[in-house]
Amino acid sequence: MVALARERHFVRAAQSCSVSQPALSEGIRKLEAELDVPLIHRGNKFEGLTAEGQQIVVWARRILADRDGLREEIGAMRAGLSGRLRFGSVPTASIAVSLLTAPFCAMHPMAQVHVVSDLKSEDVLRQLQNYEIDAGITYIQDPIPEDFQVAHLYMEKYVLLTAAGAGTVAQSATWAAAAALPLCLLDPVMQGRRRLDDVFAEVGVMPSPRVETDSVSSLFAQVKTGSWATIVPSAWLHVFGVPAGMRAMPLTEPERAVPVGLVTLAREPGSVMARALAAANELTDLTFLEHLPREQEQ
């Protein structure tokens, strides 16, 4: 059922389970007979799960996660933590992911890490609930349901990147002034861009960026030409630095800071991978990401 919910196609679901399609269908029919409820909408092709089928998938994912967790727990007790940590994050928190995976891997040399770093905040929570990831990093400004455990990491603050020879010695810039510059920004559908637009709307202005991109690395590549200014979380300057010929200035009026946190499922005993990552986080201070790199401070 989990494979069918994921693949939404009988043949692909059967292949992922290493069984034939008739064997998969027969197994589902037996489960329907045992529970005395239909689990899928039948037609010439897969047409979706019934409400009962969707609930079965929720329980099945939990059972599979508990099975995997038990194996990892026993394996860790016997020979040290191994297996794979599945780590998801919103795009702007990628540097935080790298700063946590490094100590995690140092503490557990037999473990591997798989990172998905292009998730929306709601996708991080959904994938945690579906046991698709063990831990996630996302914005925690909005209330997080009680199903999750949250550890604050740092405050995401924003800086303006503009040409160094702009004829100003100001140590900061206002959002209103930034809106008037030739801007390169993230795509409007991205959460990071929507947060910027919310602040612009708050001060009564709306920028008209000449260039938009869906990639932070592409954003820096565009800005490096010297033709554009941009707004980025200060954390990203610890990855890319300030491009040559540019300067970074904190944005004010208003000063905006959004909390970013490590989120896991609030379950006992919980994922052994999630607990190991939480232990690595306790030894790591990420608050330096709130500030400009020292060599770039104005």
Your description of this structure?
This protein is α/β, with parallel strands linked by helices and 298 residues long. It is 40% helix and 21% strand. The protein contains 11 helices and 10 strands. The protein has helices spanning 2-7, 10-16, 21-35, 51-79, 94-107, 121-129, 175-179, 191-202, 216-223, 237-240, 272-282; strands spanning 83-89, 111-116, 135-139, 148-163, 173-174, 184-186, 211-213, 230-233, 246-252, 257-265. Strands 1, 2, 3, 4, 5, 8, 9 and 10 form an 8-stranded mixed β-sheet that branches. Strands 6-7 form a two-stranded parallel ribbon. It is globular, with a radius of gyration of 23 Å. The mean pLDDT is 86.
Topology:
Blueprint: H1 2-7, H2 10-16, H3 21-35, H4 51-79, E1 83-89, H5 94-107, E2 111-116, H6 121-129, E3 135-139, E4 148-163, E5 173-174, H7 175-179, E6 184-186, H8 191-202, E7 211-213, H9 216-223, E8 230-233, H10 237-240, E9 246-252, E10 257-265, H11 272-282
Parallel strand pairs: 1-2, 1-3, 5-9, 6-7
Antiparallel strand pairs: 3-10, 4-8, 4-9, 4-10
Helix pairs in contact: 2-3, 5-11
